[in-house]
Amino acid sequence: MNLFSQKKSPDQIQSEYGIPFIIKIILIALPIIMFFISFCFGRYGISPQTVFEILWSNALNIKGEYDSTDASVVMVLRFPRILMCMLVGAGLSMSGAALQGMFGNPLVSPQILGVSAGAGFGAALAILISSSVFLIQGLAILFGICAVALTYAISHIKGGNGSVYMLVLAGVITSAFFEALISIIKYVADPFSKLPTITYWLMGSMAGVKWYDLKIVTPIIILGIAGLLIMRWRLNILSLDDDEARSMGINIKASRMMVIAFCTLITAASVSVCGIVGWVGLVIPHICRIIVGPNHKNLLPACLSVGAVYLLMIDNLARSLVSTEIPLSILTALVGAPFFAYLLKRSGGQWS
Question: Residue 349 carries which DSSP code?
Fold first, then answer.
């Protein structure tokens, strides 16, 4: 089966609404189940009964009969981390699906426009000059947005019309530029203190997530997710050829910029708090297309559910497999690369 088959008309796309009821139930139930199970994972084991008692007592603001250490691990260490995993996983997956549909390219991910490299440079620069969490997050979001603005500007240089092809090429240029700047930061950083911190942070980790981080980035990611959900019907039209899309009476340029803006907010905010987490926005949309089809009306909500569950599972493995925590990008790549090999075998390399 070719996941990116020949272009379909809006009527054909809109007619593909049907999702089996059992699939809907699974997509709703899986994040809830994984949310509660994840509290039990980690080097410090906690039973499901204790987890439920701690959560229930804190929700009702009553005193329960449980160990204070267990309560601290659940409420202070794992609760914000689990919520952040679900938020970032859902956001990156939806961004990947939206950009793949808009660009008509199965290899597009949220990193394609340079936002991850830009945000990574901002965070690396902040780590180099300070250890302030607020500065790291602020510069990461700022440079992530600046990177996309630079991509947009390059795509319009010398007669460029900002087409999807120009945007992709400009994104490659911007990513390479900011990755070179990151290399410079690593070169001048102290090899005993700053360099290990920068390197580990760029590989992605939820280890340092606190409630403070959630307060900062949650509104930004939620805004991006809500914007993509609102535009999911329009993404069906943007996935058509430009002439066909214009004939439907929409402003292609404005619509594309809105999608890019929402994806930029999600990706920059995600990178600002947990580093660069690769493969999530690339792999999950393909899995969801197999489950619910290419219609963005169904695809984006499915990505929200599956993406949240996927990154939560990866994080559970990262903090449970060995005594030291494994960076997220290592595990996401170990899962993503074999999956793409499977897709290559299944499609025979015939991507439309």
Answer: T
Domain that holds residue 210: 79-347
Q: At a CB cut-off of 8 Å and minimum separation 6, what does 330 contact?
A: 203
Distance of CA 213 to the CA centre of its chain: 16
- Tell whether 250 is covered by a domain: yes
Task: Specify the CATH number for the domain of residue 98.
Answer: 1.10.3470.10
Cβ proximity of 304 and 225 under 8 Å: yes
Distance CA 170, CA 311 (A): 29
Residue among 79, 77, 49 nearest 64 (CA): 49
Q: What's at 112, amino acid-wise?
A: I
Mean pLDDT calculated for residue range 108-122? 92
pTM of the model: 0.90
157 burial via Cβ count (<10 Å: 0-12, 13-18, 19+): exposed
Rounded to a whole number, what is the distance in angstroms from the first to the last CA of the chain?
11
Distances (CA, A) of 315 to 101, 150, 179, 287, 302: 27, 33, 25, 19, 20
Range of lowest pLDDT (6-20, 110-124, 158-172, 247-261): 6-20
Instruction: Indicate whether 33 belongs to any domain.
Output: no
Provide the residue count of the chain.
Answer: 352
Nearest to 285 by CA among 98, 118, 13: 98
Q: How many domains does the chain have?
A: 1
Residue 3 has pLDDT above 50, yes or no: no
